[in-house]
Amino acid sequence: MPELFDKRGGFRKLHTFTLATIVQLETLRFCRRFITHDHRESAKFYDPKGRQYDQMTQAARSGRQNIIEGSERSATSKDTEMKLTDVARASLSELRGDYEIWILDRGQLPWSVHSPEAKTVNAISIDPAPFTDDMVHESAKHALEQRKKYVRWLDADDDLVVANAMLIIIGRALNMLKSQIEAQGAAFEETGGFSERLTTKRIEAREKTREPSPECPQCSQPMRRRKSAKGDFWGCSAYPECKGTRPT
Description:
The chain folds into two domains: 11-197, no CATH class; 213-247. It is 58% helix and 8% strand. It contains eight helices and five strands, in the order αββαααααααβββ. It has helices at residues 15-34, 51-73, 78-105, 116-122, 135-147, 151-154, 159-191, 194-209; strands at 35-36, 45-46, 223-228, 231-236, 245-247. A three-stranded antiparallel β-sheet has the order 3-4-5, with no helix packed on it. Strands 1-2 form a two-stranded parallel ribbon. α1 runs antiparallel to α2 (51-73), α1 packs antiparallel against α7 and α3 (78-105) runs antiparallel to α7.
């Protein structure tokens, strides 16, 4: 019988969380470096109302935060966990669209998946998270260590190089989130949701406290204690098909 509560949390060990952390940090940095509200800074993208900055940073934040919230809600709702993980995926997909348009708006094309640059970035692997007891500190350190693997592109002065690298990093996170949602769905099929398990546990508890019932003298089915104007009696559980009774 599965446990009533699923394990919750554990998001800090997910590669998707590590990548989402890098994506949020680098999107904040990208916007600070390449977007300006001042039209006199001709080297940057002019964003007079700050909408581009806000939309990109909020999409990046949503991607990371919904992974966290989904993981924390997993103890009592697999359905909510899957929905929030899907929201994280949708938010990162929206952000990927922003980086794609950024490149197109400058008259360039995103790197081909067959290009040496794309192959190199895409081949970078994420190390397992070696956490012990200092989860916040160690997960932050881990994300920064993994970020160093992309430093050649993320620290580039050319915004197009950074945007192309971000497209690939976000794409990897999206593929991982898709697999994560599929795994969550498989777990739900195997163990059911919290409500189903709660019902099962309540039935189990009720059966343990139920007093032993005799067999029906007519059909041998278990009997149930019933009430009448004359007092309690045992009645067949198959009533009305069987009308067998016993005194209590």
